[in-house]
UniProtKB/TrEMBL annotation:
Protein known as: Acyltransferase, putative
Location, primary (coarse class): membrane
PANTHER family associated with the record: LIPID A BIOSYNTHESIS LAUROYL ACYLTRANSFERASE (PTHR30606), PHOSPHATIDYLINOSITOL MANNOSIDE ACYLTRANSFERASE (PTHR30606:SF10)
Keyword Nucleotide-binding belongs to the record: no
Amino acid sequence: MSSPAAKSAWSSKSLGNRFQHQIFYALLRLAGPWPAYGLLHLVVFWYNLRPSMRRNAGYFLTRRFGRKIWPVRFWQSFQLTLSFGKVLLDRAMLGVLGRGEVTVAAEDMDNLRKMLDRGRGVVMLNAHFGCWQTGMAGLEAIDRPVNIVLQKGAGDVDKHYFEHRSGGAAVHLIDPSGPFGGTLDMLAALKRNEIVCIMGDRVVDGDANSVAVDFMGGKVKMPFSIFSIASAAGAPVAVTLIERQGPGLAKVHFADCFELPPDLGKSPAALRPWVQRYAGALERMAWQKPYQFFNFFDMWVKE
């Protein structure tokens, strides 16, 4: 479980240490998912006794539900954190036990195939919403290489579902902290007509490559580099949000699909409308499924 940052900047540092995570993994292997879900309730309740946990969950909850008295906010914070923990357990369950089901609507799958038929690859723009970690398992039917842009900090001990598999990862990882922020690797993957999956709701490399857009009644900074890359490659963009529907069950939503004009370059003014379009799609899902939006930090710009 990633630790909510106390400041406006987010951190990928896991809340629990490696040993604590191994307890859940071992419990999954030895007793199955239900005892692990039971232990999760106790752990989440304990952590929500911390004011810092409730504060960090409260940034979004206040935007969504308004200010609430302490018992209500505690319950909301508990529900949000519990939902996040279930997502992480589902991810481990898929990797450790091979249990889990990710569904994609036939129409969305057909649209994805049509986009790939153009030969320019596809940018799947994700967010920290629902089962974003396991949702890519639903792409296995496409039979096309998947590249995931993933940055893990030194304190992040959470394992993605493919990291549990003894046969090695079934996907290619692109490190955005590498040379040119992984841009060359992403462009090369799109040129090979592959899928590139990347998060679009957090700024990881400073404000230089971000723009302020409207989100949940305020302004937030979101990165624009991937939109510039999609424009340069001529690749269509699919805003892909994965809803958790139950234990081990996830549904992929193509919340929006669009193509950018060619050669937009790196102009923030030219790219802002497209970042705003992505933010709008994410906001609609966050309103519909508030306990599946997992940004535990103050992402709003002070005006």
